[in-house]
């Protein structure tokens, strides 16, 4: 392939810009032309496509968000939307596409693949909920952002002898809550993938107070319920002076960690290697610390991301 394009879609994630930079510069190094598509699939269908040269991706590796912007575009799930997108790609002479994003973005790449257009998926989402990879771009930055907030909240929770329910993002996945909860010494972690008993949660809070503990931190994944609803249900089992802190979209922003920058750089470079060989219909990931490529159809249709539930059990054992 001599001409490829990049788009970012869905929720932004720290490290997307590092991936854009890696794809662009590796492709240029290999003698290829690179085009950037603004606003994801919406920009693809609208023809909002521009040539990218080396200076265009300078000084972006440290920036959060995405310089190609993003937009929701459910219309791309239709045949009409997909055919319009392919028409635009052909109009610009683009032979392959790198899609950086999460589950919805991958399904867009899958649709293009099924219609014969070579697409490569790079996992970029803080949720870490993409099959075929142990970690996604943005996840490490997100859990470190949550961890910083947990450390700060612990200070005020201790000062007032309070229980804090900290609601974190993650859509229907509990990875952010799990990893940040273990790292932050949470008293309890509540995730969609593991059933919980509110009476048992209350008992853990009560037992901690009986031991003289001055604070209690409960990390709640948004896929379970919202923090205020959780607090109301907890109140039915006793008055624990509970307060709710919803971290929200602050977790998506900020400068990516070194781990996310390196991961994005590896993924971006490998995507270009695959397209240069004329290979598409793949998604990139990291499994057992090795960068791999998997068939995107098989990965999305037959596999499902599972969090490391051993972390849940570990936290239960060491937070007592």
TrEMBL record:
Source organism (scientific name): Vagococcus silagei
Any single GO CC term annotated in Swiss-Prot or TrEMBL for this entry: 6-phosphofructokinase complex
Catalysed reactions, as listed in the record: beta-D-fructose 6-phosphate + ATP = beta-D-fructose 1,6-bisphosphate + ADP + H(+)
Every Phosphofructokinase domain range: 3-275
Cofactors named for this entry: Mg(2+)
Binding site for ATP: 11, 72-73, 102-105
Regulation: Allosterically activated by ADP and other diphosphonucleosides, and allosterically inhibited by phosphoenolpyruvate.
Annotated localization: Cytoplasm
Class in the EC hierarchy, top level: transferase
Keyword terms, alphabetized: Allosteric enzyme, ATP-binding, Cytoplasm, Glycolysis, Kinase, Magnesium, Metal-binding, Nucleotide-binding, Transferase
GO annotation (BP), single: canonical glycolysis
Full protein name: ATP-dependent 6-phosphofructokinase
Job of this protein: Catalyzes the phosphorylation of D-fructose 6-phosphate to fructose 1,6-bisphosphate by ATP, the first committing step of glycolysis.
GO MF: 6-phosphofructokinase activity; AMP binding; ATP binding; fructose-6-phosphate binding; identical protein binding; metal ion binding; monosaccharide binding
Subunit details: Homotetramer.
Record-listed E.C. numbers: 2.7.1.11
Residues annotated for Mg(2+) binding in this entry: 103
Positions bound to ADP: 21-25, 154, 185-187, 211, 213-215
């Amino acid at each position: 392939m001599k001409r490829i394009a990049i788009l970012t879609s869905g929720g932004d994630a720290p490290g997307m810009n590092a991936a854009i930079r890696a794809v662009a510069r590796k492709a240029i190094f290999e003698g290829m032309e690179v085009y950037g598509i603004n606003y994801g699939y919406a920009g693809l269908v609208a023809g909002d496509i521009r040539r990218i040269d080396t200076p265009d991706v300078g000084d972006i590796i440290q920036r959060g968000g995405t310089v190609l912007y993003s937009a929701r575009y459910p219309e791309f799930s239709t045949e009409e939307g997909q055919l319009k997108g392919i028409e635009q790609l052909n109009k610009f002479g683009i032979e392959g596409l790198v899609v950086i994003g999460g589950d919805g973005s991958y399904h867009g790449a899958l649709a293009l693949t099924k219609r014969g257009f070579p697409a490569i998926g790079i996992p970029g989402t803080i949720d870490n909920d993409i099959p075929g990879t142990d970690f996604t771009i943005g996840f490490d930055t997100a859990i470190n952002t949550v961890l910083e907030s947990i450390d700060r909240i612990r200070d005020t929770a201790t000062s007032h002898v309070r229980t804090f329910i900290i609601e974190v993002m993650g859509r229907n996945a509990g990875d952010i809550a799990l990893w940040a909860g273990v790292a932050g010494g949470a008293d309890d972690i509540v995730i969609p993938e593991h059933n919980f008993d509110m009476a048992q949660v209350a008992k853990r809070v009560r037992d901690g107070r009986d031991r003289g503990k001055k604070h209690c931190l409960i990390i709640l994944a948004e896929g379970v319920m919202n923090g205020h609803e959780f607090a109301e249900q907890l109140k039915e089992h006793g008055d624990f002076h509970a307060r709710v802190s919803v971290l929200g979209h602050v977790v998506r922003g900020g400068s990516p960690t070194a781990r996310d920058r390196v991961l994005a750089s590896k993924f971006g470079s490998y995507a270009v290697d695959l397209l240069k060989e004329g290979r598409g219909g793949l998604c990139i990931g990291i499994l057992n610390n090795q960068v791999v490529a998997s068939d995107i159809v098989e990965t999305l249709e037959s596999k499902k991301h599972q969090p490391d539930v051993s972390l849940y059990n570990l936290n239960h054992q060491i937070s007592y």
